[in-house]
UniProtKB/TrEMBL annotation:
Record's keyword annotation contains DNA damage: no
UniProt keywords, alphabetically: Dioxygenase, Oxidoreductase
InterPro entries (UniProt xref): HPCD, Xdiol_dOase_suB
Keyword Ribosomal protein: no
A Pfam family of this chain: LigB
Annotated protein name in UniProt: 3,4-dihydroxyphenylacetate 2,3-dioxygenase
A GO molecular function held by the record: ferrous iron binding
Organism for this UniProt entry: Saccharothrix tamanrassetensis
């Protein structure tokens, strides 16, 4: 979320998301420790209205300002390698699974902040890992995105890459009314949203994944899931859906940001999936 970027700027909000900064850096450290050479990112701010899209550029380079919140994020310079081969494989596997996807190598197709902000903390090494962004279709179903996740896993297994997958979106995602939005930088929009989010976190931490997934469509609808919670469904599609036997490790405290629910959680890949 953009307040993490705000947190590292000088001024009155400096340091407000320090625990999230540390959590994201830890994700990057773990990815390298486990041998990853590529981040595949389901970016909830690269929102698609038709098909599924993959950014297949060989290099991602530019300077970014948020069109949504330019007072939060501006002049964010970035330079990351891409992975055209993996992007093509992901597109092929999504299509092979009966869905429509397109892989793009377009000069002016830049990155969005759901990729850029985490990568700033996770991928700052002098030799950055490759980045392959996947868009989130805002009109897709949970089941469609599960199948996209399965396709990503198949593509990785066909490739020679070692991949860390980042589901970059929120938990509940209800914004407050515009007239009072400035009062909610550190507040949840509705107490029931936080209660639902904390239940989800308990399910993840204790490995009650099937229980969570059975309620995911309703959770997405009732608590205003970001980008149809496409990133979340892709994540669990990669992990094996309700057959996933692991559990999530929470890397920072749950916190609200502009009314939405935020957290960082690590889900280890099961032994049977060498992605």
């Amino acid at each position: 979320m953009p307040s993490i970027w705000l947190s590292i700027q000088t001024g009155k909000h400096h340091g407000i998301r320090r625990h999230a900064e540390v959590g994201l850096a830890e994700v990057g450290r773990r990815a390298r420790e486990r041998g990853a050479d590529t981040f595949v990112v389901a970016d909830s701010h690269w929102m698609n209205s038709m098909s599924f899209h993959i950014n297949g550029k060989a290099r991602h380079q530019g300077s970014y300002a948020s069109h949504e919140l330019p007072h939060f994020i501006a002049d964010l310079e970035y330079d990351y390698p891409g992975c055209q081969e993996l992007a093509q494989l992901i597109g092929e596997e999504i299509n092979a699974g009966g869905q429509k996807s397109m892989v793009h190598d377009v000069k002016d197709l830049g990155l969005e902040y759901a990729t850029l902000v985490p990568m700033h903390f996770m991928n700052r090494d002098g030799n950055p890992l490759a980045v392959v962004p996947v868009g989130c279709n805002i009109y897709s179903s949970i089941d469609e995105n599960r199948r996209v996740g399965e396709a990503i896993a198949r593509a990785v297994l066909r490739s020679d890459r070692k991949v860390a997958f980042l589901a970059s979106g929120s938990l509940s995602h209800q914004f407050p009314p515009n007239e009072i939005s400035s009062q909610y930088l550190d507040k949840i929009s509705n107490p029931i949203n936080e209660q639902a989010d904390r239940l989800v976190l308990d399910q993840w931490r204790t490995g009650r994944i099937a229980e969570f997934l059975s309620a995911l469509p309703a959770y997405n609808e009732r608590f205003t899931g970001e980008a149809a919670m496409a990133d979340t469904a892709m994540l669990f599609g990669i992990l094996g859906w309700d057959g996933y036997s692991g559990h999530g490790e929470q890397l920072c405290d749950y916190f609200p940001s502009s009314g939405t629910g935020q957290v960082i959680v690590d889900f280890p890949i099961p032994d049977g999936l060498k992605a």
